[in-house]
Amino acid sequence: MQGTEKYETKRVKLDAQLVKQAIARASLAKDSKFVCDYFDEDLHYLLLRQRGRALGWFVRAKGRTERIGSVRPNDPNYLSPDKARTKAGQIYYGMKPRGAIPRSGGAWTWADLDREYQEMLSHPRKVGNRIKPPVHATQDEVRRHFNKPELQSWQKLKLSDIGPLHLRKLIDDIQRRSYSACVKTMVYVKAALTWAQGQKTLESGLGETHAWWATMKPPQPDGKEIKKIEIRHQALTAAKDALTIKHLAELLVVHENYCAGREGNEKISPGVRYGIWWLALSANRRFTATRLSRSSLTWPDEWNPYSTPDQPWGVAEWPPEFAKAKHPFMLPIPPIGIHIACCCMWDWEAVVTQKRGFKRATQWVFASTRRKARRGHPENPDPGIYPNSLNAHLRALRGRKKSGKNKTDLLKDLPDFWPHLIRSITTNFFAQHRKTLPAAASSAMLGHVLPSDREIDWRRMSKTTLDYYLTAQHMDLKREAMKLWSEKLLQAYYEAGGKLPIRSEPRIQINDDLPRVPVVAPLSPVQESSFVPVATEKD
Predict the structure, then answer these.
(1) Which CATH architecture has domain 104-220?
(2) Which residue from 382, 430, 431, 513 has the highest number of Cβ atoms inside 10 Å of its Cβ?
(3) What confidence score (pLDDT) does residue 190 get?
(4) C-alpha distance from residue 189 to each of 51, 117, 147, 504 (Å)
(5) How many Å apart are CA 382 and CA 372, to the nearest integer?
């Protein structure tokens, strides 16, 4: 922007109401020296730009800005907010990636560092004596924070020319929108500069630069932000202390009733419906549902003494990059868990076949019904359910989802619940049963690293051996914890008035290789184990 212009930026929800307000504001402009960019809350690269009386949709990302349409209905290039979002996504993914930005002639610019640092994060790294696999969540966070509009002015700056004032101004600008965002942005900017100086000393041009960024800290939150932080912390602490397995069972009853009452476009997707169940049963982080491939869920488990032909136990496994401890993680899956997974896969096949008119394959147990890549992941046309979809569903039950039609708090009699709190419920539950269940069993099931694990090199062990099953994965301990947890959860669920969840989609001609699930399942609890169909086949 020219020095004589007045420039404003806002991060808002770009909907029809906002567009109407922007048009009214633009009609009052007296000249073209005033510029205001309205950035969308969801699509970071979509903006509505007002320059004087002119208004238009733009895509701004990767060091470039491109106009895509008009907001005025009488304009032949008119785009509604929804159509602008669709076209913005198409334009954004069609833009050349940051790797296409020419390298600077000598020392790196910020654009060079951005590209190289993100490329480094996408590969395994050696940290000390171990290999650290790439973490997809970290890659997404870095990509999101480095794509902020405030960083666009850095693209052509040489790293050796960036100083404390640049970073302080950047962080202050971001803080006006979000305090947590400014804290994370500073962390990642400092990490990238440190990596460039330590690992790419010659290429970056930072070899003789004092690491001035090392001592810089994010700003202190103001009084209002501190109050918000305290309120969130108090709510989280109160929920952790209050939630019990009984509350979780009651939540599942409400969840099932809510899903049963949704039809047409409001129907809850199979991945979300059964994903909530899987989250409750597995008692682990959201990755247990969002990152479970069909090939990694097997049954029956021949080494599990509780597994029988009509009530099989199974095994689910996740690779190191999806586990918190960055080790392969296995869980014994009780019969009700196998039942939930089977129902999800059947319902998904039915929904997608009905919607698309033909079969579509997926690698995930809890797959998304969308059959195209998500924003930020154009290389993946087969997404699993998005982790935040589970959070959004819980907000819908509370009547707090902005786009949801339900405005009634269906969970008003229950403490607040977030997916991560499942671990607090489980930890409190196992503490109450510490006389009958070894502490190591509950820790193993929750994915904690046991003292003996530090002496085991799982990379030298065959994953098909009993030694790996018992020594590296402690499956004998996990199955005792899982048996106790799943039986008590089902008992509480039935006592709260719940019925066994079964397929909601009508039986149609779909993938014959899928495991069979019952058309009508028993609706009364059984003390010894959960329900699954007799002679369940492996997928």
Answers:
(1) Orthogonal Bundle (1.10)
(2) 430
(3) 92
(4) 32, 10, 12, 48
(5) 7
